[in-house]
Amino acid sequence: MAISRKPQDLIEIPSGALASEFSRLEDLEPDHIAQAYEHCRLVTRQGSKTFYFGARFLPLEKRRAMWAVYNFCRLTDDLVDKAGDLALPQIQARLSEWEAELLESFEGRVRASRPSMVAWLDTVRAYNLDAQAPLDLIKGVRMDLEKSRYANFEELHLYCYRVASTVGLMASQVMGYSDPRALEYAVNLGVAMQLTNILRDVGEDAQAGRIYLPQDEMARFGYTEDALLRGEVSPQFVRLMRFQINRARRYYNQALPGIEYLPEDCRLSISVAARLYSRILTKIERNNYDVFTRRAFVPKSEKLLGLTRAWLGRKLGWHELPSGPLGSYEEADA
Predict the structure, then answer these.
(1) 316 and 301, same domain (yes or no)
(2) Which residue would you say has higher pLDDT here, 17 or 216?
(3) Which of 114, 192, 202, 300 could hold 252 in an S-S bridge, CB 3.0 to 4.6 Å?
(4) Is residue 186 located within the same domain as residue 253?
(5) Which of 103, 125, 146 corresponds to the end of one domain?
């Protein structure tokens, strides 16, 4: 998923047996709500440095709301990724319980013992979030229980939409937008970021039994599942990865013009997030496509450089990310 991992000691897995009964938000003290947002800030800071860095350039109230959105998405993802030895029916049951708790939040009720959801409900009310995007996110998480292979990009695109574009749609509601077309661009940015996650985590996901690379494209480039499970960085794998990386870059570039539909005080934050996340693709290239033994990440020094470039890009009207060193999306398919 597009949401990065967070430390074990901050995991707040839903469990009806451990949580208190539901309360109305208006019955909670302001300090309780403030502490809930502080919890979300700490989880976001430790769980996704890139997300946290990009959110720093939002106005404070919207920044707090994005911490709440991150925490909701993180908790949803953890229901599967941190399930441990739970059997499939148990995980499904917890997802159903979580979905019911989400729906309670849209009725104005929340478990006071769940700081992430206290902040989430306050954000839902402040920015009039609707239920469709978070419900679709839960559907995406369910896909990881039901599917471990994707026949083609159409199937993968649906997964990317559910687990990542939904985050962009929620963010768009928090930030506000001047034209409904902004939502289409947000969907593209979510797909780009999730494709980036998938390419970075090819080796890790394979060890967990999941292969997100489309099966028909693996066959087209002559790269087998057995080779993937062995971690082979062959010429066939390099060509396959070039194709996937250039596709991801195309989605980034299709997303960037939509930033202009956001309020002025939110544009730099999204520019920074898009440019920093896309740098992971460059890191994969510089690691010679070894996503099995080397993890692609953007160090702090390059994040600061990315901030400078994003700021300059806004001043100079750049609406595309730099091209990769290996040509276009179409060239990689040759």
Answers:
(1) yes
(2) 216
(3) 192
(4) yes
(5) 146
Q: Are residues 200 and 94 in the same domain?
A: no
Examine residue 113 and state whether it is found in any structural domain, yes or no: yes
pLDDT band at 9 (very low <50, low <70, confident <90, very high): very low
> Domain check: are 174 and 298 in the same one?
yes
Give pLDDT tens digits for 54-110. 899 999 999 999 999 999 999 999 999 888 889 999 999 999 999 999 999 999 999
Q: Is residue 3 part of a domain?
A: no
- Give the residue numbers spanning the domain of 202: 148-334
Q: Is residue 324 included in any domain, yes or no?
A: yes
Q: pLDDT tens digits for 221-279?
A: 999 999 999 999 999 999 999 999 999 999 999 999 999 999 999 999 998 889 889 99
Taking alpha carbons only, the member of 78, 79, 76, 10 closest to residue 44 is 10
Q: State whether 89 and 153 are in the same domain.
A: no
Q: Indicate whether 304 pLDDT > 60.
A: no
For residue 186, give the amino acid letter.
A
Number of independent structural domains in the chain: 2
Looking at residue 180, its pLDDT comes to 93
